[in-house]
User: Fold this.
Amino acid sequence: MYVAPPLPPIEVLPLDISGLKRGNVGIDYVHRFESAHPGPSVMINALTHGNEFCGMTALAWLFEKGVHLTCGSLTLSFANVAAYETFDPAKPLASRFVDRDFNRVWSREILDSADNSVEVRRARELRKFVETADGFFDIHSTTFPVRPMLIYKLLEKSVQLAATIREPLTHIVSTGSKHEGGVMYEFGRLGRSDNSAIGILVECGQHFAASSGRVAIQTMLRFLKPFDVIDKEFIAAHLEPDVPGDFVVYEISEVLKAKTNEASFVRPVQGFEEFREGDVIGFDGEQDIRAPFDRCAIIMPKAQLIAGREMVTLARRLDSRVNT
Ligand SMILES: [Zn+2]
Assistant:
């Protein structure tokens, strides 16, 4: 059986967020701020995965500082609190979801189906906010301590906004529909080129690292800035100086699923290891898994490889910024 690298120590534990349960839109853990002045609808989403605490840290920080809206609206949501509440430090990866991955249900087929899972029912509650957002920002973290990354669909509007956000300096782009079931940041208008609504996801670092919360706050401010819905001075007061250098871009080619419970990587991996075309990445049943091209980076490998579930994302490191 594949043995993944050990997880780092747990530096951050779940906060009691029950005080934020009662929102102002009639849906638990959803808060919406509206300005009298017209402007874009922006949504910041935390806890899409129940054990990814940095989004909780960022939203708790924003609530504590106070939201100073200048125009438009800002919706703040904690998505999968049901999973978050099951966190057990002895099994820290087990609280990612309750019934199924919340970030793999964002398609009309699933949302309109008879699926009665905790996650699909919750997704139906958040749907109208995601569907109407002009800017949607989804805060995540990774199993292993790898560099933070922005992830977005390869659409002109998203590429432009991501270049403005710039940091974290690793960008992962996708031509879309790579994850079976559908991801939130590509849902509806966000994933289409016929409108200006933009969805971006950030992976802030390791799930339980204190530094991931700081990355979440900084990237959230960088995302909010161009929409201009919250006070400029507030953003300027809290934004750290730019890190020098340009960002590096990877393009997702495919998301591999394990075919057997005996699937394994060629060695313990954490993410961003690169392989040359034809190199063996891992094994699955009788088959070798080989890199389909040069500069093939493996992104977010799973710690536990289970038949039928996602194993790893393969991406090509590009020379420079992408053109759409
Ligand atoms: Zn996640």
Summary: The longest strand covers residues 248-257. The CA atoms of residues 225 and 235 lie 7 Å apart. The mean pLDDT is 96. The chain is about 20% helix and 25% strand.
